[in-house]
Design a protein that fits this description.
single chain, 123 residues, mainly beta, 5-stranded mixed β-sheet, 4-stranded antiparallel β-sheet, 0% helix, DUF5990
Length: 123
């Protein structure tokens, strides 16, 4: 399954910060600017049906315990090895999410979790 995240309000990266979708413990996937000023991030995940009827996710960009999976948009100094900030984007838990593509739009408001502008939808 392909996930697309469009993020608004992220810190400016002008020589000060490196911002990206966190893959594994220390790799950042770069975003692509959108026409309306956001940044688009994409990743592949494996989606499976869980015994309780919810959808489970696995993949290099998926973090957290099984019942509460999420993605991180992470911020650090260029080439740094520690995070300045990490912003959680919770993955959907519902059944029948399909196997194609899901998209979400979020806004960084300076909190630990991104504010959801448009929740996960099939694309």
């Amino acid at each position: 399954m392909r996930l697309t995240i469009v993020a608004d309000g992220l810190p400016s990266t002008a020589d000060t910060f490196e911002v990206g979708l966190q893959a594994g413990k220390d790799r950042l996937l770069a975003g692509t600017p959108t026409d309306d000023g956001g940044l688009r991030y994409e990743c592949e995940v494996a989606a499976t049906s869980r015994p309780d009827g919810s959808t489970g996710f696995r993949g290099e960009c998926v973090h957290g315990p099984t019942a509460e999976r999420f993605l991180y948009l992470s911020v650090r100094a260029p080439g740094g090895d520690s995070w300045y900030r990490r912003i959680k984007i919770m993955l959907p838990r519902g059944p029948d999410l399909g196997t194609g593509r899901l998209t979400i739009r979020v806004r960084d408001e300076g909190r630990a979790r991104a504010a959801v502008v448009t929740d996960w939808t099939p694309a």
